[in-house]
Amino acid sequence: MTKKLYIKTYGCQMNVYDSERMAEVMAPEGYALVETPEAADVVVLNTCHIREKAAEKVYSDIGRLKVLRDERLRGERAGGDLVLAVGGCVGQAEGAEIMQRAPAVDMVFGPQTYHRLPKMVIAARDARALHGKARVIDTEFPAEEKFDHLPSPRGSGGPAAFLTIQEGCDKFCTFCVVPYTRGAEFSRPVEKIVAEAEKLAAVGVVELTLLGQNVNAYHGVGLDGGDWSLARLMARLGEVPGIARIRYTTSHPRDMGDDLIAAHGELAACMPYLHLPVQSGSDRVLAAMNRGHTAESYRDIIARLRALRPDLAVSSDFIVGFPGETDDDFEATMQLIRDVGFSQAYSFKYSPRPGTPASDMADQVPEEVKDARLQALQTLLFEQQKAFNVASVGQVMAVLLERVGRFEGQLIGRSPYMQAVNVDCGAAAADVIGRIAMVEILSGEPHSLKGRLATDQAA
Ligand code: SAH
Ligand code: SF4
Ligand code: F3S
């Protein structure tokens, strides 16, 4: 391979998956991945539009890359012409605006068109050669399925892999851009997903994380031609030789069907960890968010899951300072956190997004109120996360050892509950990497655990 590609990934795991696919689409064209934009012929920013900060970061990165691109263009720096592309959700949401605001950008594309990346790069190069500048925009939602045009994944090398099974969202929460950037909900057929899982297993993948913006709304064409739910799909994937663990993210409380809840009790491969965003503990706020669930229905789902899997670790997303959120509403969120108990969580200040209904709502919450609420909420969540990790000390857990750590003989893995575990494996490290091993947990830090290989390896 002679040409070099640099991809920077922002945002969620679906973007991580997409970036891997982009690299695979470009490989047959002779592009190898490099670690820095300086070393690249083509730079792709795979962007995120979810909050204002995420989107603004892209523009500041473009500013820095413009300097590099100009220096290369003027021959002040080796490497020749550099093609600068913006893909992902900012590309989708602000395609034309990017071209206007940032003339250094040669190409803009969205999450649904990156299988056409090689063609776009050629078009951009031709336009640059002819007119001195390029403006290639491809932000359609093509009717044809992008997945049909992607090479099959080779796996990123490790034993844990992402597999996108569903895309888009029809929920239209009033704060969220995803239905606009990713389009309508779409589920891949079971057959395609199973084939991809088999290929991943063949290259050593042990753990699958099934991805979708609304992954438990999955309803793909099943092997019998009928509509299959996520639970049925997971049961089938659990039969793929080599696949020992299955996770899924991100799910919506409204789509936690009975069979999916049951799967947490019945399916051995289904890990005892669930990321289930609740956003708020106030029914008034949840209604204004158009979430379609209440605090009570959320508590009920967790209670049913824990009745089947008492050790289930629960994670969530929270938004503080949604328009109209009062102190009482916020306190209801804090109470929900105390009641449920989370092993980890992500929390954000509400960020008004152009084109979403909430951005026009009256009663926007002042920034300093958002700051104070976020701090109180994160303090509580951090206490819960620390307590959860400390409670793991002394346990012997099955840990998937994913990669080498910083020290000799140390491997880094994941517990069934998604905790990062630093494991002292000594001389056995080379033998156990990529495998699931029993690990005795020796200490619990706020963000990780430490352990050593247990003497008894029987799982
Ligand atoms: N599909 C997932 C989440 C997608 S976005 C779901 O339905 O839960 C990831 C998280 O970003 C959301 O759960 C939400 O907590 C947060 N988020 C989305 N839009 C936001 C906004 N405008 N301001 C602040 N946080 C937001
Ligand atoms: Fe956004 Fe709501 Fe859809 Fe999640 S369910 S992606 S928060 S609109
Ligand atoms: Fe961001 Fe798009 Fe994911 S907006 S969170 S990268 S779906």
From TrEMBL:
* CDD domains, per the entry: Radical_SAM
State the GO CC annotations.
Answer: cytosol
Instruction: Give the principal location in a single coarse category.
Output: cytoplasm
> Which class of enzymes does this protein belong to?
transferase
The protein's matches in Gene3D superfamilies, at most eight in alphabetical order, are given as: Methylthiotransferase, N-terminal domain, tm_1862 like domain
The entry's [4Fe-4S] cluster 1-binding residues are 12, 48, 89
| Keywords linked to the UniProt accession | 4Fe-4S, Cytoplasm, Iron, Iron-sulfur, Metal-binding, S-adenosyl-L-methionine, Transferase, tRNA processing
Q: Does the keyword Electron transport apply?
A: no
Write down the superkingdom of origin.
Bacteria
Determine if Protein biosynthesis is one of this entry's keywords. no
Instruction: Name the NCBIfam families for this protein.
Output: miaB-methiolase, MiaB/RimO family radical SAM methylthiotransferase
Q: What is this protein called?
A: tRNA-2-methylthio-N(6)-dimethylallyladenosine synthase
* Organism from which the protein derives: Govanella unica
Q: What is the lineage of its organism?
A: Bacteria, Pseudomonadati, Pseudomonadota, Alphaproteobacteria, Emcibacterales
Gene symbol of the encoding locus: miaB
